[in-house]
Design brief:
Strand order of the largest sheet: 7-6-1-10-11-12-13-14-15-16
Order of helices and strands: EEEEEHEHEEEEHEHHEHHEEEHHHE
Number of helices: 10
Radius of gyration: 19 Å
Helix content: 25-40%
Strand content: 15-25%
Largest sheet: 10 strands, mixed
Number of domains: 1
CATH class: Alpha Beta
Shape: globular
CATH topology: UDP-N-acetylmuramoyl-L-alanine:D-glutamate ligase
Number of strands: 16
CATH superfamily: Ribokinase
Length: 337
């Protein structure tokens, strides 16, 4: 399957922080979930020793790695641009990505930093992630002509890495044929619209959780959020929700994307939004309409929720098509009148 010229190596390059994710399952009986100011908070006893059964690790985690693996499993020529350290975690990460068919020629080894590790406190189907972004010497590489992709998928990077984002924005300006998909991370959103506006305006696809978009804009109505984001110049917009569905819009329509109906209880939610976003982008890269690309996304998001971590449940192309063939009618994407 080829979507760029035969001389080029990559259909899509995913950009962002990567990490080893260490999952620590905490028994629900030892914790409490409280609702404070409209937000859920995980409460654990201070000073206590909490038992846990075992821990599991995802060697190559993080939003960018999750997307890169999703693209590769869906048949795309997928590459990752990221920074790791010259340590065992970094070496293991490279091996894992290469095993998934992800090109790692744009992964930069930076010393004396340490490769990121995230610790996932897992209670029931939900989790709280302890994240520490290492300070790498972030810089956008000089891509050879055959390394320039058809699409760039930009996601979470560390705090205050504005120079890196500026370099990417400048590179996109010099390469107008490259299409940008952007799923901003926590630190990028905290920087506010002043920092994000240029990248938003360059987006072919902008993906945000509905709650994050409302917080960013100070607007509590999804339709108004879509209208405000459209004014930034982003061509296609996706607002994901907690149930595995979304609201979306392009220049012609607004779309309601129902979650994929699933009677099996959710096992663990990490990475479901990554799966949703990357599946939409993969469909567009493959030449699908926006509506058809949106139709695929809840299926992959559902599948991820039945495995530990963000990648184990990611579907391959043939499996995704199989789910779509049996999809209930009530899961179909609806165009708003």
């Amino acid at each position: 399957m080829t979507f760029v010229t035969s001389a080029q190596r990559h259909d899509v390059v995913s950009v962002g922080d990567v990490a080893m994710d260490v999952f620590i399952p905490i028994p629900e009986a030892t914790t409490e979930v409280r609702i404070e100011e409209g937000r859920r908070r995980l409460v654990v006893p201070l000073g206590a020793k909490l038992p846990f059964d075992r821990n599991a690790s995802v060697t190559a985690g993080g939003d960018a790695a999750n997307a890169a693996v999703a693209f590769a499993r869906l048949g795309l020529r997928s590459a990752l641009a990221a920074f790791i350290a010259h340590d065992q975690y970094g070496r293991d990460l490279l091996v894992a990505l290469r095993g998934e068919g992800v090109h790692t020629n744009l992964v930069h080894v930076d010393d004396p930093a340490d490769t990121n590790r995230n610790f996932v406190l897992w209670s029931g189907p939900d989790r709280t992630i302890l994240v520490r972004h290492q300070r790498f010497n972030w810089h956008w590489p000089s891509l050879r002509p055959n390394e320039v992709p058809a699409w760039l998928y930009l996601t979470s990077v560390g705090a205050n890495d504005f120079k890196y984002e500026d370099e990417i924005a400048q590179w996109l300006g010099a390469n107008p044929a490259v299409r940008l998909a952007f799923r901003p991370g926590t630190h990028q959103l905290e920087a506010g619209m002043g920092r994000l506006a240029e990248l938003f305006g360059r987006c072919e696809v902008l993906v945000l959780s509905q709650d994050a978009a409302m917080d960013l804009l100070g607007i509590d109505d999804a339709d108004e959020v879509l209208a405000a984001l459209a004014r930034t110049g982003a061509r296609r917009l996706v607002l994901t929700d907690q149930d595995g569905g979304a609201r979306a819009a392009d220049a012609e329509h607004r779309y309601q994307v129902p979650p994929y109906l699933d009677t099996t209880p959710v096992y663990e939610r990490t990475g479901s939004d990554d799966a949703f976003a990357s599946t939409v982008v993969a469909g567009l890269i493959a030449g699908l309409s926006f509506r058809d690309a949106l139709q695929r996304a809840p299926v992959n998001a559902m599948s991820v929720k039945h495995e530990v971590g963000a990648q184990a449940g990611l579907l391959r192309q043939e499996d995704l098509v199989g789910y779509l063939a049996e999809m209930p009618e009530e899961c179909a994407v609806v165009i708003d009148p």
